[in-house]
Design goal:
Elements lengths: L1 H4 L6 E2 L1 H7 L15 H15 L4 H9 L73 H11 L6 H9 L3 H4 L10 H19 L8 H15 L4 E2 L1
Antiparallel strand pairs: 1-2
Length: about 230
């Protein structure tokens, strides 16, 4: 799945076009609101913007962090929910008990494989999360889209996009033994971001057209006009 979608050969479109396409997508793991997905993205971005007005890269990260959910859309193969949303975690080493529904890992062959079921597994201490394979989902997909389309977002932004569903790390401090110094610095921003991702949802509707020019300017600053998806 990672190999197939990593080719980024499904479609070419802009970031904003993807935001609008996401309105056709339902994330069954996030049933809080009935409003279009783009409103949640803007609510997250605007909440960050109020508290961190000078960090425009973080505003844009709030807008785009969930765009990988387009994998649920028919144009992208309409992947099942389990393959797109929900918590992510490392593979190739022991499954930490803080991972949601941990008990079901006992049915996974890796659980009893001595090559994979130890603390470090196939990895080494402080190897860096960039060298760790994560379970597939919308996080990794959007990270690949940003990276392979030469986004100029800072490394902290790419870290947030790639690991915002890695709750075992930023809620439970699991897997810190795999992190390098850059990961540790970037985790501070992810923990800041996480407060807005989870708690910025509101029944107050956002004025999409009013906010669009500001976010279009950020998209132009950090991304090419068209991206491969």
């Amino acid at each position: 799945m990672r190999e197939g979608y990593g080719k980024l050969d499904k479609v070419e479109m802009s970031i904003w076009e993807c935001c609008e396409l996401l309105n056709d997508v339902v994330d069954e793991s996030d049933p809080d609101l009935d409003e279009p997905q783009i409103e949640h993205l803007l609510q997250t971005a605007e909440a960050i913007r109020r508290d961190y007005p000078n960090e425009d890269w973080l505003h844009l990260t709030g807008l785009i962090h969930d765009l990988g959910k387009v994998l649920l859309h028919p144009n992208f193969g309409e992947l099942p929910q389990w393959a797109v949303v929900g918590d992510t975690f490392p593979v190739g080493c022991a499954f930490d008990e803080s991972i949601v529904h941990h008990r079901y890992f006992k049915e996974n062959p890796d659980y009893n494989n001595p090559a994979y079921n130890t603390k470090f597994g196939v990895y080494s201490e402080c190897c860096g999360l960039n060298n760790v394979m994560m379970s597939w989902g919308h996080d990794d997909y959007m990270y690949l889209v940003a990276k392979e389309n030469n986004s100029t977002l800072p490394s902290a932004a790419l870290f947030i996009i790639r690991y915002h569903s890695f709750y075992a790390l930023h809620r439970s401090d699991a897997y810190r033994h795999l992190m390098n110094e850059e990961d540790i610095e970037n985790l501070k921003w992810l923990q800041i971001f996480n407060k807005y991702d989870l708690y910025s949802k509101s029944k107050v509707r956002t004025d999409v057209e009013k906010l669009k020019p500001y976010y279009m300017s950020l998209i132009k600053k950090y991304f090419p006009a068209k991206l491969r998806w």
